[in-house]
Amino acid sequence: MAVVSIRSVMRVSRGIVSLSNGMNALAEGRKKVEAPRYTGTETEVARLLQAFRAFRESVDRVTRLRRTTEAAARTIRSTFRSMNEGIALFDPRGQPISMNRRVIALLGWSGLARKLPLRSFVMPLPEIDLAPLPAENDPGLLADRYVLRHRTDAGRVTEVSISRQPDGGIVLLARDITEIDRQETEAAKIQRLDAIMRMTHQVSHEVGNMIGTDAEGGAGLGLAVAYGFVRQNPSRSPQPPPESEACPRPSRHSCARRLLESQPAPQVHPWLRR
Length: 274
Hints:
51% of the residues lie in helices and 13% in strands. By secondary structure, it is α+β, with helices and mostly antiparallel strands. The protein folds into three domains: 2-79, no CATH class; 83-176, PAS domain (Beta-Lactamase, 2-Layer Sandwich); 182-273, no CATH class. α1 runs parallel beside α2 and α5 (178-227) runs parallel beside α6 (252-262). The longest helix is centred in the last third of the chain and has 50 residues, at 178-227. It is elongated and about 135 Å long.
């Protein structure tokens, strides 16, 4: 009986030593740590072995998640640094958290600007009102997204957007829109020219209608008199216009109107009155 007890104690001891070695290996970050083998019937050691396997699986999951997170973080950092648009992050007190090189270049700063608070960082933009922005002891009143365009003396146009996040932090975005601004200016010029051309065409059309109406009115009256639909009043004889009112050559249409006005009042045929 004593021999059986000694063997049982030895098995339990070897099992505990194997579990301890496995736990130390997992703690050191070793890969592919094998679970210790135990063939005894002792319940406590069997439960410890099950707990070790569950812990090893958890460590493997955490390791995979950490690798995935590190890869994603590297991708985000690389994209953050090389993106064409500038971005800067500030905490609720306006202190800088992180920013890329692009936003520093667009605002005309050097690399030392990474440590500047928000109000100092936007000093190169005179269009920005500093009062709504947060400071050390002032949370600021910025609530909605604030967008503006800054034009430099060199002709570069930068669009700057400042917005507050749900946690109170501030996100500043900047991008170069010089080409977009130039295209918008040209499009506005084209629209103005198109409106002027349409108005000119309408005016010329109306003037042409007025000229055509005057000419057609005189010709139509002559045809009506010739065919007998309109009769001249015999009590009035045609009176030629005086020489002093003779129309000069350039004003032919006003001359036609005056000739028509000098004609006697026509009498409309009864058939036309019906």
